[in-house]
Amino acid sequence: MKTLALSALSLLLLTGCVHVFSDQTERLVDKTISFEQIKQNPKAYMDRYVKLGGIIASTKNTKEGSQVAVVQFNLGCDDFPYEQHATGGRFLAVTPNYLDSMVYRTGRPVAVIGQVKGEKVLPLGEITYTYPVIAITEIHVWKQSEQFPYPAYYGDPYFYGPGPPWYPYGWYGPPHGYW
Q1: How far is Cα 53 from Cα 141, in angstroms, rounded to an integer?
Q2: Closest to 110 in 3D by CA, of 177, 3, 4, 21
Q3: Alpha carbon distance 70, 67 (integer Å)
Q4: What are phi and psi of 126, to 5 degrees?
Q5: With bands split at pLDDT 50, 70 and 90, how would you rate the model's confidence at 173?
Q6: Residue 11 in 3-state DSSP?
Q7: What angle do CA 66, 69, 71 make, to 5 degrees?
Q8: How far is CA 42 from the centre of its chain?
Q9: Does the pLDDT value for residue 59 go beyond 90?
Q10: Cα Rg of the chain (Å, integer)
């Protein structure tokens, strides 16, 4: 019974979420602050550390450093931003360092831990938009392989991959759908 309980506990610990940020940086984050609160009044949260994520809208490099505009989406337990039908808005992640716009390109998921540094008003299309500004402490952009870690067999008529050992053609039958 003791070994069964220990095995179950080990399995539970192994299936937990893995974070992409260092423990030291994670400890800085004030988890009581939501993006909605920051968006409403960024000055009230000046110099507080937050963890935000979303999809990169644009990256701009200047003499002062790099600025990444991010469409905010909530982060899952693995710090991956999960797109929903609505967003809380946008924010700017800034750093004095150079961030290559080919790596931090439009459409890539990103997560940031940083300090709230106020707000910045910039044009967005034909309007002016007030962005909360986050000074990057740590940033993670997902590679294609990290975005979709599972094989893409859903809807693939030619997939006949792994199945039970007693079923020689896998879950979806023999190659190319021939029975």
Answers
A1: 10
A2: 21
A3: 10
A4: -100, 10
A5: low
A6: helix
A7: 155
A8: 21
A9: yes
A10: 21
d(CA 143, CA 164): 31
CA distances, 125 to each of 8, 91, 122, 133, 147 (Å): 53, 15, 10, 19, 29
- Annotate 52-100 with DSSP letters as a single string: EEEEEEEEEEETTEEEEEEEE--B-TTSPBPP-S----EEEEEESS---
Structure-token pair, residue 43: 């000055």
* Contact of 114 with 134, CB cutoff 8 Å: yes
Helix, strand, or coil here: 136? strand
104 pLDDT more than 70: yes
164 Cβ contact list (under 8 Å, min separation 6): none
Letter string b/e over residues 119-132, b meaning 16 or more CB atoms within 10 A of that residue's CB: beeeeeeeeeeebb
Q: What are the structure tokens assigned to 92, written together?
A: 């700017």
Q: How far is CA 11 from the centre of its chain?
A: 25
